[in-house]
């Protein structure tokens, strides 16, 4: 059955029924106009101000002649202005494309060219990088810089962000945007090859935001969440997992500054009575050390999430003690299946702390033999696959990658693991990072977890290196913590590994380095570690 809409104006029908992630801001602003939406070091902004600015900017962007579906590239640090730009694009039917400004100019130019973005919106601090990027992006014809009376950049027409907002007319945007239209394009980190543009629809985002609010126990009404965000919003975690669910729930987003500072973060938690935060394990460790040195009142925190990797038990204990009233849980996911895709329950802190937790309400997770498409029963190890509205629409301009990603009617994550009888997901390794040594499959993640507990080790990456006898040998690449002389670390690591691992899992080689290459979100880039070991 379908309704007869022949007498209904298409725009009226779209506005009345659509799923548009930008409308979540409008709804919240109608109910809580004077509530603080965003706090940042240089001030704060209410929901009404954020919504009105977004609509005006959306009008102005369309006034530049941008067509629906056009990508708008952002080179902006965490700020309410970045959020206003994001929501402006969503309401105007444009595709918001935040860029990782820590990439090289060549890599950034490649992304802009691949996406065919005609416009870049940037902070003033990005001018040097932007100039270098524009030298390699002939398709960009307009630049917006967040500064007063900006000088021309790269020979392109240049306008100030505030001036562009002022050009926009007052009043809500009335633009047809379909539920499955693309809301954002985020490029993957590209740790093994050129990055891929992940296209995410309004439906996928909206469902994911609601799911994230549920699994992090955010309340709707008079006691809204207050979220400290320390990760960069050009990444899916800070943008979609942390910030936007809070905006949907009418809470307050606290931005502590451009660079992570444990002292500033803890001060912000105490000052603003933060209820929620998410950090990488190394950030939690730095905060725990800072809290031990100068205690703050952190009793307001009810949910402290960590991401990217399990935390060692001693560090988990310190985080538990630091946030005495909080559930401390691990969340995980990937850009292509808007995180969180799986997340621990508070009960898993004691029963399955090293797991990823079960699937979130909007996602179905299984493991599969990727060659045959056979879905495994519990305890069957295979590739972790997903179904549900969180799944992206696909990759931009990459038919081959889409064919692989959606094979057998599931989204293929590239992760290996299994589900237990309770549906809890246990991650083994990335498919490409499994080490085949002497006929045995070795999980680099399992070995890393053990090596990190060895005396003298601060960080670790485990890779396979060519070996005449074993085909691949397990190699631990470690960063020392200074407590053990460098020349003794190899013996310490191997002795510790022998006490906790099977013989074929014990590293055959240990190499000490000053630092490990990482992405902007702290993920170790194993392709670069491998390249480093080949040199």
Q: What can you see in these coordinates?
A:
With 535 residues, the chain is an alpha/beta fold. The chain is 33% helix and 26% strand. Helix 2 (21-31) packs antiparallel against helix 3. It is globular. The protein starts with 9 loop residues before the first helix and ends with a helix.
Search tags:
single chain, 535 residues, alpha/beta, Rossmann fold, GMP Synthetase, Chain A, domain 3, 3 domains, 27 strands
Strands ordered across the widest β-sheet: 2-1-11-10-12-13-14-15
- Supply the CATH class of the largest domain: Alpha Beta
CATH architecture of the largest domain: 3-Layer(aba) Sandwich
DSSP summary, beta strand count: 27
Structural class: alpha/beta
Mean pLDDT: 93
Radius of gyration: 24 Å
Shape: globular
Report the portion of residues in β strands: 25-35%
Number of domains: 3
Unreliable stretches covering 5 or more consecutive residues: none
* Sheet with the most strands, sense and barrel status: 8 strands, mixed
């Amino acid at each position: 059955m379908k309704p007869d809409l022949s007498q209904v104006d298409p725009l009226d029908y779209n506005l009345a029924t659509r799923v548009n992630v930008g409308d979540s801001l409008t709804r919240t602003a109608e109910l809580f106009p004077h509530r603080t939406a965003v706090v940042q070091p240089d001030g704060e902004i209410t929901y009404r101000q954020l919504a009105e600015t977004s609509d005006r900017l959306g009008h102005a962007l369309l006034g530049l002649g941008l067509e629906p579906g056009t990508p708008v590239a952002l080179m902006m640090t965490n700020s309410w202005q970045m959020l206003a730009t994001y929501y402006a694009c969503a309401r105007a039917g444009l595709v918001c494309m935040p860029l990782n400004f820590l990439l090289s100019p060549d890599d950034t130019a490649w992304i802009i060219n691949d996406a065919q973005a005609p416009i870049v919106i940037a902070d003033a601090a990005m001018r040097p990088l932007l100039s270098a990027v524009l030298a390699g992006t002939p398709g960009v014809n307009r630049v917006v810089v967040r500064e007063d009376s900006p000088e021309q950049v790269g020979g392109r027409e240049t306008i100030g962000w505030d001036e562009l907002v002022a050009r926009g007319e007052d009043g809500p945007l009335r633009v047809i945007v379909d539920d499955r239209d693309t809301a954002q394009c985020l490029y993957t980190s590209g740790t093994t090859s050129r990055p891929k543009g992940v296209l995410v629809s309004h439906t996928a985002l909206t469902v994911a935001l609601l799911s994230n609010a549920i699994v992090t126990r955010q309340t709707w009404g008079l006691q809204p969440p207050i979220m400290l965000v320390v990760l960069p919003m050009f990444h899916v975690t800070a943008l979609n997992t942390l910030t936007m669910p809070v905006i949907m729930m009418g809470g307050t987003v606290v931005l502590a500054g451009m660079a992570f500072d444990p002292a500033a973060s803890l001060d912000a938690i105490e000052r603003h009575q933060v209820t929620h935060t998410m950090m990488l394990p190394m950030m939690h460790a730095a905060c725990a050390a800072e809290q031990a040195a100068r205690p703050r009142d952190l009793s307001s925190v009810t949910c402290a999430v960590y991401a990217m990797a399990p935390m060692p038990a001693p560090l988990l204990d310190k985080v538990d003690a630091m946030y005495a009233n909080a559930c401390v849980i691990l969340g995980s996911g990937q850009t292509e299946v808007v995180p969180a895709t799986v997340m621990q329950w508070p009960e898993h802190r004691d029963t399955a702390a090293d797991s990823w937790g079960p699937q979130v309400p909007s996602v179905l997770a299984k493991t599969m033999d990727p060659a045959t498409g056979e879905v495994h029963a519990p305890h069957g190890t295979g590739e972790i696959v997903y179904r549900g509205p969180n799944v992206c629409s696909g990759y931009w301009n990459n038919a081959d990658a889409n064919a692989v990603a959606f094979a057998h009617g599931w989204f293929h994550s590239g992760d290996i693991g299994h589900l237990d009888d309770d549906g809890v997901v246990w991650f083994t390794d990335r498919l490409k990072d499994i080490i085949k040594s002497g006929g045995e499959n070795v999980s680099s993640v399992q070995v890393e977890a053990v090596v990190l507990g060895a005396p003298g080790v601060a960080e670790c990456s485990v890779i396979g290196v060519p070996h005449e006898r074993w085909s691949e040998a397990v190699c631990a690449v470690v960063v020392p913590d200074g407590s053990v002389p460098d020349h003794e670390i190899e013996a310490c690591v191997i002795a510790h590994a022998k006490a906790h691992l099977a013989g074929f899992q014990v590293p055959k080689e240990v190499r000490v380095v000053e630092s490990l290459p990482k992405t902007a979100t702290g993920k170790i880039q194993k392709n670069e570690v491998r390249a480093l070991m080949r040199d």
